[in-house]
Design a protein that fits this description.
The complex is a heterodimer. By secondary structure, chain A is of the alpha/beta class. Chain A has one domain: 3-Layer(aba) Sandwich (Rossmann fold), CATH 3.40.50.880. In chain A, 23% of the residues lie in helices and 24% in strands. Chain A has a 9-stranded mixed β-sheet with strand order 2-1-3-4-11-10-9-6-7, with helices on both faces. In chain A, helix 2 packs across helix 6. Chain A starts with a helix and ends with a helix. By secondary structure, chain B is of the alpha+beta class. Chain B has one domain: Mth169, Chain: A. Chain B has 2 helices and 5 strands. In chain B, the strands form 2 sheets. Chain B has a 3-stranded antiparallel β-sheet, covered by helices on one side. In chain B, strand 4 and strand 5 form a beta hairpin. Chain B is elongated, with a radius of gyration of 16 Å. The chains are: A alpha/beta, B alpha+beta. Chain B: Keywords: ATP-binding, Cytoplasm, Ligase, Nucleotide-binding, Purine biosynthesis. Chain B: Belongs to the PurS family. Chain B: It is an enzyme of class 6 (ligase).
């Protein structure tokens, strides 16, 4: 990959009322070599972006259910259409909740089994490296990125879980400790096509030396999350 | 002014962490007879005028699309708050 081929890739980041991590996500896109484009929830225009990130936060204060009201934002109608057409879409934390409420991904999130907010550096195993957002990881690679949520327990019925496992659509699994009671330690999943990925932990907080989780080369040195964003740029170059 | 009550409960197969916390707290107050608790949601939807069958049908639709998530929750009641008259909840909506 060279900067030149990637400079044209425009990655939209949607801001809802109550979104917290949109600027971190935009920064991650830039650090990976892409061009972040701010998108507003009330605007159906996706401004010609090549991919979309739904960032973390507490859109609409998590009122009703996390992600339930954001799902009906005008921008989401466009995101759902674009996702069905194959555009890469990444939902992080609250963004993952929005994707399940929009039925782009199966299952749902309920309150953590221990009922407390959890904030920690979380180890994940990358189990699917063929998605638009994980193609630069090695199969089985273990990564450490921050996790912070209250409603992070992934649930789905047994048949859906079996299908996800059978089709290789479990992209990330909690490793070492399951922080929220998620079924089968599932931290992130993808759709059948592999263009839509959602996960509860936060890759955009682990993209820059000095500001990430503990890494091999020192405290806050972890940049394991950056590969999400280089992966999508690589998938766009290939497309 | 009419009012429609919509009640939503977590599906039986979904663990309800909030209900679990409630049932854990009850014995501390001496309520040892309660062996389980589940926590749901009650909505009150207001309309100008009476609660007609059409209003109930619209409330049912709202309950299924916005007020509940069918993956984790069931709509257990859609009723006129004044008369307590509930529509018959079917797969097609309120009959």
């Amino acid at each position: 990959m060279t900067g030149e081929t990637l400079a044209s890739a425009r990655i939209g980041v949607v801001t809802f009322p109550g979104t917290l991590d949109d600027r971190d996500a935009a920064r991650a896109v830039r650090l990976a070599g892409g061009e972040p484009v701010s998108l507003w929830h009330a605007d159906a225009d996706l401004r010609g972006v090549d991919a979309v990130v739904l960032p973390g936060g507490f859109s609409y204060g998590d009122y009703l259910r996390a992600g339930a009201i954001s799902r009906f934002a005008p921008a989401m109608d466009s995101v759902v259409d674009a996702a069905k057409g194959g555009m890469p879409v990444l939902g992080i934390c609250n963004g993952f909740q929005v994707l399940t409420e929009a039925h782009l991904l199966p299952g749902s999130m309920v309150k953590n089994d221990h009922l407390r907010f959890v904030c920690r550096e979380q180890v994940l195993t990358v189990e699917n490296t063929s998605t638009a957002w994980t193609n630069q990881y090695a199969p089985g690679q273990q990564i450490t990125i921050p996790l912070k949520n209250q409603d992070g327990q992934f649930v789905a019925d047994e048949r859906t879980l079996d299908e996800l496992e059978g089709d290789g659509r479990v992209v990330f699994r909690y490793t070492g400790w399951n922080p929220n009671g998620s079924r089968r330690d599932i931290a992130g999943i993808t759709n059948e096509r592999g263009n839509v990925v959602g996960l509860m932990p936060h890759p955009e907080h682990a993209v820059e030396q000095g500001f990430g989780p503990a890494g091999e080369t020192g405290p806050r040195a972890g940049t394991d999350g950056l590969t999400f964003f280089t992966s999508v740029l690589a998938s766009l170059v290939r497309a | 002014m009419g009012r429609v009550v919509v009640e939503v409960m977590p599906k039986p197969e979904i663990l309800d962490p909030q209900g679990k916390a409630v049932v854990g707290a009850l014995p501390r107050l001496g309520f040892t007879q309660f062996t389980g608790a589940r926590q749901g949601k009650r909505f009150e939807l207001e309309v100008d005028g009476e609660v007609t069958p059409e209003v109930l049908a619209a409330a049912q639709q709202a309950a299924e699309t916005l007020l509940s998530n069918p993956i984790i929750e069931d709509v257990v009641r859609v009723a006129d708050a004044a008369t307590d008259a509930a529509g018959t909840i079917t797969a097609e909506g309120v009959a």
